[in-house]
Amino acid sequence: MKNASSAIAIHRDALFGVAFAILAAVGFSAKAILVKLAYLDTVDAVTLLALRMAFSVPFFLAVALWARTTHAEALDKQDWMAVLGLGLIGYYLSSFLDFLGLQTISAGLERLILFLYPTMTVILSALVYRRAIGRKVVAAMVLSYAGILLVFSHDAGMSRGGIVLGASLVFASTLSYSVYLVGAGHAIARIGAARFTAYAMIVASAASLLQFGATRPLAALDLPLRVYELAIAMAIFSTVLPVFLLSAGIRRIGSGNASLIGTIGPVATIYLAHVFLNESVSIQQLAGSLLVLIGVITVSINSKNGAK
């Protein structure tokens, strides 16, 4: 009887883990939709990012205060430098470039480009740690980038102005986030995932607010109520909740399974963009998305297994 109840508890825990990972993936995917909806009004990337971070930071401050009571070991100078540098690179710069890129490209293309981060992480790790890249991984990366080119050519054919610049900015955002992932492993192991994430997000929020204060007048905050509602939704449903849902999911089903479930992100974005933004869905887009998904999943699996 005890074994049966234990098995049920494990099964229930796994189901919760899957549900949390799915909700996190959808939440992260919805960010692009909310940004594009906000851009329908007269708001720029700097102001919108500042609003998102301003509404997010109270939650991360609360987590930071909680983390201080659960971690006895204080951060040293090296730890603080890691938090500062990685917070600026991985959260502030990556988010800012992404918001800029979304001004001129579709939400579907943006999510697919962001989804390339495992391929960039593999390349950066190979350069930094001198790790060989296996043949299967190389082939999978070629497949992924071929899929991006397919979706890019479709969007370019739709005559969207500034698509090259927008795609380049989002690509740079993905590269920035990949640099963060490569450099964050040691810091997270020493500081703790929740504490590191909270501190890094506070750094990113401060940078976003300082950028707004230095480059925009207070009159820039005279925006329609709709923009504030979207910024609050972005902060709660596409920033704070997904971060903690993903952590909860990883604790229950492991990072590998959570990453694989995260592959629904681009699909969710394409669907949401079609429903809320009237973005077209063509066979060419679906084919390109499928190539990216297959390639990234293959890279993730083979990189973890060390396959050649």
In summary, what is this structure?
Helix content is 83%, strand content 0%.
Keywords:
308 residues; mainly alpha; 83% helix
Protein structure class: mainly alpha
Describe the global form: globular
Which runs of at least 5 residues are low in confidence (pLDDT < 50)? none
Please give the alpha-carbon distance between the first and last residues. 46 Å
Into which percentage range does the β-strand content fall? under 5%
Q: Tell me about the biggest sheet?
A: none
Please give the number of β-strands: 0
Could you explain the architecture of this structure?
This protein has 308 residues and is mainly α. The chain has twelve helices and no strands. It has helices at 2-38, 45-70, 77-101, 107-114, 117-129, 135-157, 163-191, 193-215, 225-253, 255-261, 264-277, 283-305. α1 packs across α11 (264-277) and α4 (107-114) packs across α7 (163-191). The longest helix is centred in the N-terminal third of the chain and has 37 residues, at 2-38. The radius of gyration is 20 Å and the shape is globular.
Write the SSE topology.
Elements: H1 2-38, H2 45-70, H3 77-101, H4 107-114, H5 117-129, H6 135-157, H7 163-191, H8 193-215, H9 225-253, H10 255-261, H11 264-277, H12 283-305
Helix pairs in contact: 1-4, 1-9, 1-10, 1-11, 2-3, 2-8, 2-9, 3-7, 3-8, 4-7, 4-11, 5-7, 6-12, 7-8, 9-10
